[in-house]
Amino acid sequence: MWPWEIGLENYTSLFRLYKEQPAASVFAHFYPPKRDDAPPDFDAPFKAIANATLDGFESWTFQQERFRRKHSSSEVPKLKNYLNYTFVRLVLLELQSPGDHFLVTVDDDWICFNTGLQNPFGADLLAVFQRFKPKPDGGRPTEGFPGRVYKGLWTPTDRRYRELFGAKIPKLAWYSKESRDFVFDTSYTLDREAFDHLLERARERAGLPNASDEGIRNYLRGSIENLVPKIARNYKVAIPVYYVEEQRMQMLLPFISASDPNDVSCFLVERNDAHKCYILKTIFDLDQAYFSARLITRPDRDWLNP
Question: Are 102 and 200 found together in one domain?
Fold first, then answer.
């Protein structure tokens, strides 16, 4: 069974992102476990996934209070963002290469994909879903409900997995096959002038709310001037990211707030081979930076640790 036969191209998210989102655009529902005399915890399935991963639950939470407040709707916002955008990428890859990234049973009842995560024993964690089947006795109608239901994380050696899908394992999501996308080229220049389009954003993130435009320009020039020598000494300073909104590889470069040495923001830059330079695209807050970077790898805690 091919992806167009199960309508993968119609889904814009793995789970419902907002209340009014059309059900036809949502791939699956994640049922909260039943709890006696307590409201349902819709975050519970995702917390269970976080607990099952090699990195553990804490790696999927925010450490800084301001980010916990900003993303208070979930205890594991990093994980939910990672799963959703990994799914979106896998859909695109599956449409290009049918049968590689999603496995579907012959009867179309079950489907799975590789989350790209592993458990503490180094086994791949595969997200498994079953087709939603409304109860015949007046249960929830099909309209307004996603067509699939999350059934859990299985490994390739689980007995039930092998009964349904055999020995095949769905392929991982990938974002670039060009090695140059993952390492900053220090032979290229870093544009230190073309950031007037970011002055207001820079004023906020540089910790200089009352500074003049020229004051902001000077601060950014100084921050950028120091970056290439740092990268030359430690390549991990420059973090490769897949910028979902533009569907391309770019890089994150950190800079420190003028008002708080513990507050880090990130330049988002894009390589321009024609002019052999990196061009400043925008400025990310630390949580935005982590969300984009985590699709590629778990970022270095030295500086990208919101």
Answer: no
Whether 119 contacts 53, CB under 8 Å: yes
Measured CA to CA, the distance from residue 254 to residue 44 in angstroms comes to 33
User: CA torsion 97→102→106→109, rounded to 10°?
Assistant: -150
Cα R_g (the chain), whole angstroms? 22
Q: How, if at all, do strands 189-190 and 277-284 pair?
A: parallel
- Classify residue 284 by its DSSP letter: E
* pLDDT tens by residue, 151-201: 999 999 999 999 999 999 999 999 999 999 999 999 998 876 666 777 777
Quote the CA–CA distance of 235 and 243 in Å, as a whole number.
Answer: 20
In the three-class reduction of DSSP (H, G, I as helix; E, B as strand; rest coil), residue 88 is classed as: helix
The overall pTM is greater than 0.85: yes
Together in a domain, 123 and 33 = yes
Contact 255, 219 (CB under 8 A): no
Q: Closest Cα partner for 145 from 17, 5, 27, 46?
A: 27
Number of domains in the chain: 2
Handedness of CA 61, 65, 68, 72 (dihedral sign): positive
Residue 304 lies in a domain: no
- What are the tens digits of pLDDT across the range 233-260? 888 889 999 988 788 899 998 887 766 6
The span from the CA of 127 to the CA of 123, in Å, is: 13
